[in-house]
Amino acid sequence: MSDWNLPWTGACRCGRVKLKVSAPPLLTMACHCTGCQRMTASAFSLSVGVPAEAFEVTEGEPVIGGLHGDDVHHYFCPHCMSWLYTRPPAMSWFVNVRATMLDGAPGSTPFIETYTSEKLDWVETPAVHSFETFPAQEAYPRLVAAFAERHAKSAS
Question: 3 in a domain, yes or no?
């Protein structure tokens, strides 16, 4: 898909924190880990991985919530507590935006699914690639390229 209708905008549930994405996604994902299940109160979390330089908070000041460790930072609205996005410090080039925080949830069909080892038995997604945990760091360039190729083909 070459026309993503960018920029994308979005907000938390109460609208106090607003977001903007100005470049096409690198990946779309569903994570089935029990942490995501608990933070979303659902079977999985949906996210759109975007380049860090194409993401901005345009209003409000999100706070770190969920786990407060060094391995991943989950950002929430301090008022309504909506989970907005995740920044994995080991992947500073990447911001994982919760797809449903973006107006119309663009690009929300998952291309990959992670932590299938923890998924609920009845859950199925249309993801093209499945991983029992997270893909190895060195797998991401290949996945990003495959996602781009798939969407380039669908635009022709």
Answer: no
Question: CB of 120 within 8 A of CB of 32?
Answer: yes
Q: State how far the Cα of 119 lies from the Cα of 19, in Å rounded to an integer.
A: 29
pLDDT digits (tens, 9 = 90+) for 37-93: 999 999 999 999 999 999 999 999 999 988 766 678 899 999 999 999 999 888 889
**Closest CA relative to residue 32, chosen from 101, 131, 109, 142:** 131
Domain count, the chain: 1
Three-state DSSP class for 64? strand
We report the CATH number of the domain holding residue 85 as 2.170.150.70
The alpha carbons of the chain give a radius of gyration, in whole angstroms, of 15
Q: Is residue 116 part of a domain?
A: yes
pTM (predicted TM-score): 0.89
Alpha-carbon gap, residue 95 to 152, rounded angstroms? 22
Residue 86 inside a domain? The answer is yes
Backbone angles phi, psi at 59, to 5 degrees: -155, 140
Dihedral of the alpha carbons of 48, 51, 114, 64, in degrees to the nearest 10: -80
Contact 85, 97 (CB under 8 A): yes
